[in-house]
TrEMBL record:
Signal peptide (from-to): 1-28
Disordered: region residues: 349-368
Keywords: Glycosidase, Hydrolase, Signal
InterPro entries, per the entry: ChitinaseA_N (IPR013540), ConA-like_dom_sf (IPR013320), GH43_C2 (IPR041542), Glyco_hydro_beta-prop_sf (IPR023296), Ig-like_fold (IPR013783), Ig_E-set (IPR014756)
Protein name: DUF1349 domain-containing protein
Annotated organism of origin: Oceanitalea stevensii
Amino acid sequence: MRARAPRLATAAALAFTVLAGAMAPATAAGPREDAAATTQAATAVVQDGPSQEDLPVFEYQGVITDKETMSYNPTNEYIFPAVFHAGAHLEDPLAEWYLYLGPHDAPGGIVLMYSDSLAGPWTEYEGSPVIANEWGEHYSVSHVATPEPFWHPEEDELYLYFHGENTTTRYATSSDGIHFEYGGEAVTTAQGGPGITETSYARVFEHPDADSPYAYAMFYMDNTPQNIRRIRVAESHDGREWDVRPDPLVVPGAAEGQNVSSANLWEWEGQLYVIYHASSGKIHARTVNDALTETGPTWTLHEASGVGDDTGRVAAPDIVTDETGTYLFYESGDRLGATIKYAKLNPDAVREPAPGTDPDPLRQQCSGAASDEFDGAALDADLWSAGVRTDASAHELRDGSLVLPTYRAGVGGAPLLLQDLPDGAWEVTTELSISPDQSFQQAGLLLYADDANYAKLDLVHGSQGLRLEYILRRGGSDRNTGFDSVVPGAGLGETFWLRLTSDGDTAVASVSFDGETFEPWGRPVDLGALSPTAVGPFAMRGATDAAEIEASFAWLRWTPTAAEQEACEGGLVIPEIPDDDETSAPGKASLRTTSGWATGLHDGSFEVLVDLWWGTNGSVLALYENGELIAVENLELATPRAQSLRVPVSGRPNGTYTYTATLINSQGGTQTQPVTVVVDDAEPGRAQLSHDNWDGDGAFTVTANLWWGTNATSYRILEDGVVVAEGPLVAATPGAQRATATVSGRAPGTYTYVAELTNAAGTTASAPVKVTVRR
């Protein structure tokens, strides 16, 4: 069976009994071992609790499908491994474990392999494919693929789900796991809603929600009219007829790219996860509640190490346990050139901690010497000496920004403003504002070797709309796949931030949509192969008829070297205390804050009040926040009269901040008692959604009202996970804010709307509102 770690009981857990494989680490395979027949459900809290560091480490073991020795190999590629515990359910199996997989490209076909151990070796069943792309009167399709075995506990029979075409997930039944009878269609695109074009890559398991009226659940992948693939949930009473939920469970974010696919349910140390692969080329994990309605942040569960054969994309995870350990089965390699590999959980391995919060993500407080704020009358010729065709440059320095036109040329013809690359490691970041709306209008950062060899990180309007891309061009040919050119998603605004980072050997790209959090983008570029010499901003539109638009770069900043950082941090120090007439150290001041005074909101903007009511004065005040020096103020001595100071603090995100202050004179320093501020209102308040679709005709307005609370600076209104309205807001905390989305032309059905309010501290989503269109 697909074993799982035992679920831990919590104070809020609900007890219920499940049969085997109900929530196996991936999909259900059959009745649970007797020792685990009764367990407790994890709580539905998905935002608190585990972190990425709590996920286990899987170490690469090897290849299962050796393409040179496989008998059934029509297309030289295999995808979507799915393990079934044959020995636990079948009377006379070929071995203890069955592994179903197969090619995806036509004609596809379901391949069976078997082994007495999850560690292998695995033997190919000579009669493969056990299910083909043609099946009598039932169907004739270009391919069948993605097998999903599920032991049906009520019917005591194996159900095998598979897709073919991509529009339809089907199922077949078997008593021996080898010979199958056709069952029918399980889920089709018609059940997914208007415009859905794919229904495939299904995984099936017993429903984890003890309160659900359904016995079984399914994760599967759909595809939207915008060509964005998402994870959907379907539910069933019998495993044959399925009801599809209208809202996707997982919508791809910036870290994942345009697509997410092949989702699986997995339990680890009492917490349920949805695990899946994405355009990032990695296997991701999000916490999920028992009801399969809420997910947590996106984490990376597994990626290739890059050592030996452990390279390339990883996808379609299936996690299974036997007496020899816990194993991750997955497909590895390019989308239509993959093979099946496996990794094993190392209980002694420690996952690298996720990086902490960058205290200066935009290098505003400290930047390298080659940085340029573009606030002069002309570019510094020494900084920008590596440019190409600069005599033809039409750039302007305007209002503290570098403004470039989108030249009617490509990299090989456009004027390029470039700086020399330093030796060793480096990192460069820019803030870019551009709104391309015609094909090939683009702007970004260029890593330049020559006109035929470069890498560019940019926003471009392609043939199918906006894409954020990190493209490598060598010898006049582009490396451009779904990993390198990705639809940017709903978080993109007119202004965003681009970053290139090098360790001296490779250059990786990252993008930020809020100026605080940077997400990796595209695949690394091998600097040894490219040999770039310069980097800089660019804008162009190719030899097209697209209109010329402007790209505005607010600055270009280099991350400081270690020496530059040390010098920068030395800017805030306690000065040498001058001689004075005091005969003792200062008296002990008291500390207060004004957090919450004006509105009751602890929104991260307040003052720290320092008062020495009477006693020996200090000439310098040093204020510390969580042990770090944040302010140094000079004071006038007037012993024994009172001294008072108000130090403003702003922009603090939600968290706990402890302040201490030290009064200093020539005789020494005296520290105050600490005062603590808990900031819990920095993020916007929660908007309330309403609509006016009383006549049910498909044309209506969705309104988001924040009646009172911390204000937002921007908003988004989403329909079924897709943005239908967004824009800026003027913050005037705690006053009311309002945003609307005008909707029209909706076909009959039910649509779910959510409003997101965003400020520098984060984003707050409203409760969803459903609108039913009847005509």
